[in-house]
Design goal:
Elements: H1 12-31, H2 35-51, H3 53-69, H4 74-80, H5 84-99, E1 107-112, E2 118-125, E3 128-133, H6 138-149, E4 153-157, H7 163-179, E5 187-189, H8 196-201, E6 210-214, H9 217-226, E7 239-243, H10 249-261, E8 270-276, H11 277-293, E9 297-300, H12 302-307, E10 312-313, E11 327-333, H13 336-346, E12 351-355, H14 359-368, E13 373-376, E14 396-397, E15 405-406, E16 413-420
Parallel strand pairs: 3-4, 3-6, 4-5, 7-8, 7-12, 8-11, 9-10, 9-11, 12-13
Antiparallel strand pairs: 1-2, 2-16, 14-15
Length: 427
């Protein structure tokens, strides 16, 4: 298609349909691509990212300046920035994906049936994946890499605030595909900032097999409401750390402090700290000043406020809020049962952690908390594809179908039954 996607005269439906047709054609080629070719493309992409680091920083600076001019919050600016460390991490993420086993074509559960046939399941790509995301330009590389390695074609639509960064990364992706002899249409980054492109993408049933939204609650609610294509998503990241009666004090303070302050603007950051009554004063007398010194605003229940004069009164809304900011809600609960009840009532089924030395309490928490990641004595910040050994993640799903938790290569494939026979006929 020769039309300039940034032109005011562009016909968005026609442009998006052309992307869809190209992606569907590319998906067939990707489905049969050899592992070596996919890995070569990923390695070439990583090299191109590193070689283009100065260009990426320059284009990112344009986006950052525009974002500041438009009054974006510090948390969103943090997500948008491509620091040298994040550029290096993009390249490393692509290489880690290349090093992962290729799931495509893997046959499992192959067994003989009484009839003599063998029945198993083969892992196959989903086809064409549409990914819609905001702010974080590094998602462009992560998404492209995971979709490529899992044998899928992808259509990536980043936020308008990152348009220059995303297009610079897209150029690196195209270089990698071309050097490996794979179709450049296997990864297409939408070039128009027109919001109508999102509406088209989520309804292109003929061309798109699944949509993955990554962004704020408003975006994900809209996608979930309007999409005519299946969606893999999470809506909120209201993550909890519960300090149990039998917690180790040092572990509790260390984990809770990291879960809140390691990064504020991520979906796996702790937003609510729950404390057993017996531990509340000991934990808060040490942890409270640490958080205040770090600049974290504390909002607590009545018991919390009696212990910490710095804490403001928490409202009902606070317990269900994903702040993505240096704000923490704190609640003192009677015991494990009340903690689990609180998580069930206010949580978002994303990530929750218990700090305890009590094996029975740990087992109950793991079994009864209905979240996509449940942890014992670990920071919620570990709920991440990179940390889980997935190489990178396309997103985190709090749904129960088709994937749950960080979605890596396996989550971007499905299975089909395969039958092996030798002239067998059914009697």
């Amino acid at each position: 298609m020769s039309a300039d996607p940034q032109s005011a005269a562009i016909e968005v439906p026609r442009y998006m349909a052309e992307l869809g047709r190209r992606a569907r054609t590319a998906a067939r080629a990707m489905g049969r691509a050899e592992t070596g070719a996919k890995n070569a493309a990923l390695e070439a992409m990583a090299a191109a990212v590193e070689a283009s680091a100065d260009t990426l920083r320059q284009e990112n600076a344009r986006d950052l300046q525009a974002a500041r001019d438009n009054g974006l919050s510090d948390a969103l600016l943090d997500r948008l920035e491509l620091s040298p460390e994040r550029i290096s991490a993009m390249a490393e993420g692509l290489r880690q994906i290349a090093a992962l086993p290729d799931p495509v074509g893997e046959i499992s559960d192959l067994r003989y049936r009484p009839s003599g046939i063998q029945v198993g399941r083969m892992r196959v790509p989903l086809g064409v994946i549409g990914i819609i995301y905001e702010s974080r330009p590094n998602v462009t590389a992560d998404a492209a890499g995971l979709c490529l390695k899992s044998g899928n074609a992808s259509i990536l639509r980043g936020g308008s605030e990152a348009i220059h960064s995303n297009q610079a990364i897209a150029a690196c992706i195209r270089q990698g595909l071309e050097r490996a002899g794979l179709p450049r249409e296997a990864v297409q980054v939408v070039e128009t900032t027109d919001r109508a492109a999102v509406g088209e993408l989520i309804c292109m049933q003929e061309y798109v097999d699944v949509i993955v939204p990554r962004g704020g609650k408003g975006l994900i609610e809209r996608i979930s409401r309007e999409a005519r294509v299946p969606v893999i998503k999470h809506l909120d990241g209201v993550c909890h750390v519960y300090v149990d009666d039998d917690a180790d004090l040092d572990k509790a303070i260390q984990v809770a402090f990291n879960a809140k302050t390691q990064r504020y603007g991520t979906c796996n950051t702790m937003e609510t700290l729950l404390l057993a009554e017996s531990m509340a004063e000991r934990v808060l007398s040490e942890l409270g000043p640490m958080l205040v010194e770090k600049g974290v605003e504390l909002r607590g229940c009545a018991t919390t406020r009696r212990i910490l004069a710095e804490a403001a009164e928490a409202t009902e809304e606070d317990w269900a809020t994903e702040y993505l900011a240096p704000i923490l809600a704190i609640r003192v609960v009677k015991d494990l049962d009340e903690a689990i009840d609180h998580i069930e009532t206010y949580g978002s089924r994303h990530t929750d952690s218990i700090i305890t030395e009590n094996y029975s309490h740990a087992r109950r928490f793991l079994r009864e908390v209905d979240s996509s990641s449940v942890m014992v004595n670990a920071s919620t910040r570990f709920a991440d594809g990179f940390e889980y050994g997935l190489g990178a993640e396309i997103g985190i799903s709090t749904d129960k179908l088709h994937a749950r938790g960080p979605v890596g290569l396996e989550g971007l494939t499905t299975q089909k039954f395969v039958v092996l026979g030798d002239g067998h006929v059914r009697k």
